[in-house]
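Reopening this ticket.

The earlier resolution said the output was attached, but the attachment link was broken on my side. Pasting everything inline this time so it's all in one place.
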Amino acid sequence: MKDVVEILTSKKKTIATMESCTGGAVASAITDVEGASEVLKFSAVTYSNEYKIKMGVSSDTILKYTVYSKETAFAMAEAITKFTGANYGIGITGKLNRADKNNLCGDDNKVYVCIYDKDNNKKTFLEMMATKKDRHENKKIIIELITKKLLEII
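Inline output:
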């Protein structure tokens, strides 16, 4: 994330995250870099549907596509950019090898990510299968994929 923070800083751009299954790991990776306060506007961990909705995700999106979908990841990314005014928003939803008794839909090991470039109204989607048994290892892989994609986008 060091390169991401440096590029965003040099371009005077900002980023915000709304994370579910990663539990703030992406925001944590960003804040591990000195100078992150120049680029990270805000981060929300929204494990429940209730708080995704309170943060701006339409309940209709969740009902139509399920909470575990690329459409919900986009709604999260878009909502966090609107909430913060950031140039880029990251939305992450999915399951890390665990069934969700409140949302029985979807694969128990699939993660959906959307990186939203508000300035160009462009959305980039990533999907990954959580193949590691350890949640921390899966989060590390997600962070690596997001970092690589951000470096292509920004």
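Reporter confirms the inline version is readable. DSSP finds six helices and five strands in the chain. The helical segments are 2-10, 25-31, 49-54, 59-65, 70-84, 135-153.
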